[in-house]
Amino acid sequence: MKPLDRADPSEAHLSSVLRLISPADEIADKSPPTRRSSPEEWSHLIERVRSAATRVREVETEAHEQELRVQELLERVREDITSANERVKAAETHTREIQLRADALLKAADERVRAAEERARIAEEWLARVYDTVASEFAFAQPEKRTA
User: Fold this and answer.
1) pTM of the model as a whole
2) Rounded Cα gap, residues 57 and 67, in angstroms
3) 65-78: per-residue pLDDT in tens?
């Protein structure tokens, strides 16, 4: 086996790092630098690593900003839910108050109806008594028939 054919474990690790930071077409065109590579190849690799690191930081910053936006949105949703729950409780309380007032009004109306019915019954009794009294007191005797 030739010395170049032997796979160095550090070179294998370097290849996997390069796959992560290089576009696929660049990997196909070039093989990763080795210990015998030129300084330009190593400089190019360093630039690619720096570029990848910059991109990773940008992605992390964007992810952090998005997470902050999501947290703000969640907080607004929580506030909206709390506000909605408070409005529901207030509406339920108002509904109970209205129901209690309606029940009280219905009870009062029923009592007035019963009182009016009782007054009407008493008035009818008195009217019947008056009628009976008038009829009995002013009963006219039938005039006698005169014969001529």
Assistant:
1) 0.47
2) 15
3) 999 999 999 999 99
